[in-house]
Every structure is written in C-alpha cells, then in structure tokens.
Specification:
Layout: H1 3-18, H2 25-32, H3 36-42, H4 46-70, H5 75-91, H6 93-97, H7 99-105, H8 107-133, H9 143-167, H10 176-188, H11 194-205
Helix pairs in contact: 1-2, 1-4, 2-3, 4-5, 4-8, 5-11, 7-8, 8-9
C-alpha cells in the first residue's frame, strides 16, 4: 500500500472511532508507526487529510450516481445503488457526524456539499418521474410536493448514520445499512403503488 493511502486509511479509522477533534496528525503517525515528519511530508496539516477524505467520498459517490445515470430505467439498479451509497456513508461516517462543524470550518467542503446536493436532488427528481411514469409510484402532478418528497429523502440519507449512533442496536440481527434501508422503505411505502411495493420487496429480499 502506498504511504499516502496508508495515512488516509488510518486517519479514516481514527476519525470514525474517536472523532475528528480528538485525533491529531501525530496520533495518526503513531498509529501507523511512521515518523511525524514523514506524515507531514505527504499531508502538512490534518486539514489536508480531512479535505482529501472528503474528496474521496465525493468521488466514490459520483461513481454510484454515474451508474444510476446510465441505468436510470433499470429499477433493480436503483435499489442496489442506494444500498452502496448508504454503505459509503457508513465508511466515511465521521464526515456526517461532524458535518456542521466541518462545513463551518472548511469553505470548500461547504461549497462542494451544496453543489453535490443540488445535483443529487435533480437526479432524484428524474428518478421519481421515472418511477411514477412506470407505475411504481403514485402519480403526483404537484411538482412542489415531489420536490419536498425528494428533499426529505436527502435529509434521511444525510442523517441516518447519526441516528444509528443513538438508536441502532443490532436490531433483529441485521446490519445498520439493512435496518435503515427498511426504515427508508417504510417511508416510501405510502407513496408506492402495489407494483412498486412488490418490486421493492422482491429486490430488498434478494
């Protein structure tokens, strides 16, 4: 493994388990077993590590959304991609635990978060239109209502990992991601047609 990648993986583990404020660059170097000077050669400040990890998350999320763009008419692909995205949230959970703090401290993170949120919102709107047009979701001619619905989904995506810190306790013996996928499904269910409920249930079960 390359040195930079080793630093990033170790920092990600420590940030996720201890919190950003309690982990210094020196602590990261000690965890790896490398000199502090060597770590600073690759990442002069802890801020540089945080910014790189945030960009890594965005890059991995973009890969998932690009797949949705390609397969937007494949219903099962949408569900699989959603699960992958939630897995990425868990992988980079410190960025969500400290979201408000990081956005106040790092202007690039705040601006990129706003930019990506707009892109994801527009894509989810198109997905909703696809689901309604193909009989998976109940039709709704009120565009503002659909936008609010999509906004609610984004709020859930951005906050479920924080909720899990307080309320998830190996519920029913299933993983965090699977449990919160069920929560999401329960929220979607009133908006789905019978065809949509059956399709979601079949894919989720498999």
């Amino acid at each position: 493994m390359k040195t930079k990648e080793k630093i990033l993986q170790t920092a990600l583990l420590l940030f996720n388990t201890r919190g950003v404020s309690k982990v210094s660059s020196k602590a990261i170097s000690e965890e790896i077993g490398m000199s502090y000077g060597n770590l600073c050669y690759h990442f002069p400040k802890k801020d540089d590590i945080i910014m790189r990890l945030h960009q890594n998350l965005l890059d991995e999320l973009d890969e998932s959304f690009e797949k949705v763009e390609r397969d937007i008419f494949a219903f099962d692909s949408l569900v699989v991609t959603l699960r992958k995205m939630m897995t990425l949230t868990e992988k980079y959970c410190f960025l969500f635990f400290s979201s408000h703090e990081l956005q106040l401290k790092y202007e690039p993170i705040r601006l990129k978060s706003i930019e990506r949120a707009k892109e994801y919102h527009n894509l989810l709107l198109r997905i909703s239109e696809f689901l309604m047009a193909n009989g998976y979701m109940k039709s709704d001619d009120d565009k503002e209502s659909v936008k609010m619905f999509v906004h609610g989904l984004l709020i859930l995506y951005n906050s479920w990992i924080t909720d899990s810190q307080l309320f998830y306790n190996e519920k029913g013996g299933i993983s965090k991601v699977d449990y919160y996928l069920k929560v999401l499904f329960s929220m979607l269910r009133p908006s789905l047609t019978r065809k949509g409920v059956e399709a979601f249930s079949e894919i989720y079960t498999s």
